[in-house]
Design a protein that fits this description.
18 helices, 450 residues, globular, mainly alpha
Length: 450
């Protein structure tokens, strides 16, 4: 796609056609990745309840890796969208290179530190004695894959930000499908280590595919070491735009650690149930996040081009679609909660705890449409601090204290309902933040017209 043609497409095509076109490949890739997570949890859960709980423990490590990758990937991607919208192509190339090579360096650092003692790391993440050996084995291969995972997150988000969502889908989806194929084979021969090996191999292959596509697809900004000229200014731009992603994913990692300690302190069955619920909800959220990521480049391009009318139109269109989507999914999973939990672990204690937790989270799903779309709008137009506050609310500011307060006061029901109450509080906070963002956009629009 020629640069001028891309600019015209992003700023002139009706948003009701453009956003679905951008979002569908991203939704597919997010769903495939999420289905892989579900499949991974399913196959590991067939070993025993302790192995199922171990996956939940190491999920917090994967969330940390994702936090760094998404911070650099979405932060640089949002910058690139706005720079391309403003026709500053050379600066976009520099931002792309800085984010990619920084991600590789961070990945190597995480791998090096973690591999010194996987058991110590697993213990810090909340593994109890029953799941420690499982968690350490699984973590070893996730750590080896860390540089490739972070690099993939950056490449994927940068391609999507440039309007090439279909190619980014190919890279991520291929790795996800391969992982689902390898999981049952490797687990059969190597136990829980097999799940880690399958993840490692698929992440490496996904990285290679994304890198080759970046080099071969016409119009995509290529990653060049010669463009790796980091500066405080570039890092400030990336971090300002990527701060919401770090807040969302980083606090998701921290809240997972807190959940591991709190749930594991009750019983391994409770930890297993909450792990399964987390993976199911990740599948539901993946559709929303994929749709919101299709909205981001459209929003960023048009904000950079000062087409504020299209920014407003895109946001309202996406909000309506998201409400309908999440309401429908919430109803389905609320009704089928016992059956869905039972698919993963046919343990009466796990099903008893998991079905209540899943129903609580389904009840607040429609609120997530407003929370997520508000967050992605503010992030896409460069209001990083306000977007970060919204992102921090759901997984950190409210959820972690609720885990620590409600569980001692109310027992298991407090743990099961913590996310529900966190969503209500985050939704309320989002309303006030979005009022200020909308007012600011309206003022910019009025100045442009004047």
């Amino acid at each position: 796609m020629h640069l001028q043609n891309r600019f015209e497409t992003m700023t002139e095509t009706p948003v009701s056609r453009l956003i679905p076109r951008m979002a569908i490949p991203t939704v597919i890739s997010m769903l495939v990745s999420s289905i892989y997570n579900l499949a991974d949890t399913y196959f590991v859960s067939q070993i025993d309840t302790g192995a199922s709980a171990a996956v939940g423990v190491i999920f917090s490590l994967m969330a940390l890796i994702q936090a760094i990758g998404f911070t650099l990937g979405m932060g640089s991607g949002n910058c690139v969208s706005r720079l391309l919208g403003a026709k500053e192509d050379k600066q976009a190339e520099r931002v792309t290179a800085v984010a990619f090579f920084t991600a590789l360096l961070f990945g190597l650092a995480v791998a090096g530190i973690g591999l010194c003692s996987p058991s110590t790391l697993a213990r810090l993440l909340g593994a109890n004695d029953e799941v420690l050996s499982y968690a350490a084995d699984y973590a070893t291969y996730i750590l080896i894959a860390a540089p490739f995972m972070m690099g993939s997150f950056v490449l994927n988000n940068q391609m999507r930000a440039q309007g090439y969502a279909t190619y980014s889908m190919i890279g991520l989806s291929t790795g996800g499908v391969l992982n689902m194929v390898l999981d049952p084979i490797f687990i059969r021969f190597f136990g829980i280590s097999g799940a880690g090996i399958a993840t490692m191999v698929s992440q490496m292959i996904s990285f290679v595919i994304l890198f080759v596509l970046t080099e071969r697809v016409s119009g995509v900004i290529r990653v060049r070491l010669s463009r790796f000229r980091p500066s405080l200014g570039i890092y400030a731009q990336i971090l300002h735009s990527g701060l919401p992603s770090f807040a969302r994913q980083g606090l998701a990692s921290l809240s997972s650690v807190v959940l591991n300690y709190v749930a594991g302190g009750i019983s391994t069955a409770v930890l297993s149930a909450m792990t399964i619920v987390a993976r199911i909800m990740m599948f539901i959220y993946s559709a929303l996040i994929g749709f919101a990521q299709g909205f981001q480049p459209v929003c960023g391009f048009n904000y950079g081009a000062k087409r504020y009318d299209r920014v407003f139109e895109s946001y309202r269109f996406c909000l309506r679609v998201a409400v309908v989507l999440l309401t429908g999914l919430g109803i389905v999973f609320f009704v089928l909660a016992p059956w869905v939990i039972g698919l993963f672990r046919d343990d009466p204690n796990v099903i008893k705890v998991g079905k209540v937790a899943l129903r609580f989270q389904c009840a607040s799903l429609p609120l997530q449409a407003y929370i997520m779309m508000s967050q992605f709008l503010t992030q896409s137009i460069g209001y990083g601090v306000r977007a970060a506050i919204v992102a921090m609310g759901r997984q950190g500011l409210f959820l972690i204290p609720l885990y620590l307060i409600l569980t001692p006061l109310c027992g298991v029901i407090g743990l099961q309902s913590a996310q529900f109450f966190s969503d209500i509080l985050t939704f309320t906070m989002s309303i006030f933040i979005m009022r200020s963002v909308m007012r600011s956009l309206q003022e910019q629009q009025a100045l442009q017209k004047a």
